[in-house]
């Protein structure tokens, strides 16, 4: 056995811990400036270079915390109380101690009580090799360890709360008849931006939805409370425990690392006339005062596959349009200048919207806002068939359909980019729409779109009965 190995085994036999190595406070100032730069929107490599460390070190700092700054290094974290010595005071103390000054002289120069200096030298001095030399970085490391709160993460010790969070985050998607729908296995193929987990179908409530819904589901149980930030930390920060890191695949983005907030605009169509532009849409649609005004769009996949989306502006209720390829689609001869056969041509989209909208009460068929895509070329016939007034957004202005754009982002959890959307059946689309309509929304005061729509329909029926009686 080598001499080094024998010394390590001797220390282990005597119950001694191995050396922790260089105190983590050694680059405390650089780390804080690094996270300030990250909060300003700079990349890990640029932030590292700005504070004087290598880009590889900056990437490691960012990944080891899941993209979230530690609480004591966060740019917005409050400064340490004046009751405790700062790292600057400890550095001055170490210099004065090296020059041979006594405790009372050091206390006078630092404007501290002599007992504070004496206690600092006794508690936080370096003890390596049996010596008691005072070093500022080692003393700060000892002080940080002593100040650490011996508190376990809330999700780690509360089984019922953890089960609730995991079920809403990673629970299975169910069809209207209650049967589980596992969905396809879509592996991460590296084509989307950022480090992300392979996608899978799940309940996929956001941490903010979970945190606020707890207050509605358990109004009298204060133990069933947790902030959305604590859920994010349990997912992203290593060592927090409770939630497995791979559950980030159930988040809408699927990101394996949290992205700082700071990192995160043609020609019109011949069938779009000025009188059907969004500027002519009724004011009641713009202020969301009355349900029945819809926004629509297509989400595209491989092989020219597509799924249509309709979102009601007031309640955020979502309907999905099944757009399978039409007969004759694929390689081979086809009629020249005939209808588009991929499933999302003007004829197919008009038929799908007509079939879906016809199932709704008349008071929910007021208007539809769409972008200037060629799939809406038959909008005039759509209005005749359904009574639905169609309006078009300005070119390159997706924010004019913000509700629909946000919903399309939610749907990418289930229908990722770069996949064949034609393999999803109508039952699959119904299951996903049901899942989306039973998720609480912040804009609805944490009610679900289904609950908001039911409330509106109940109120209109009550009003009709009262009028006729």
A few lines on this structure:
The chain has 469 residues and is an alpha/beta fold. The protein contains 18 helices and 7 strands.
What does this structure look like?
This protein is α/β, with parallel strands linked by helices and 469 residues long. The strands form 2 sheets. The protein has a 5-stranded mixed β-sheet, with helices on both faces. Strands 1-2 form a two-stranded antiparallel sheet. Helix 2 (28-39) crosses helix 3, helix 6 crosses helix 7 and helix 11 (207-217) crosses helix 12. It has 3 domains: 28-147, no CATH class; 155-263, no CATH class; 274-326 and 338-465, 2-Layer Sandwich (Nucleotidyltransferase, domain 5), CATH 3.30.420. The protein is built from 18 helices and 7 strands. Residues 4-22 and 465-469 have low confidence and may be disordered.
Helix content: 25-40%
Helical stretch tally: 18
Order of helices and strands: HHHHHHHHHHEEHHHEEEHEHEHHH
Number of strands: 7
Strand order of the largest sheet: 5-4-3-6-7
Can you name the CATH architecture of the largest domain? 2-Layer Sandwich
Mean pLDDT: 81
Structural class: alpha/beta
- CATH topology (fold) name of the largest domain: Nucleotidyltransferase, domain 5
The CATH superfamily label of the largest domain reads Ribonuclease H-like superfamily/Ribonuclease H
Strand content: 5-15%
Q: What top-tier CATH class of the largest domain fits best?
A: Alpha Beta
What is the C-alpha radius of gyration, as a whole number of Å? 31 Å
Estimate the global geometry from the Cα principal axes: elongated
Uncertain segments: 4-22, 465-469
Span of the ends, CA to CA? 99 Å
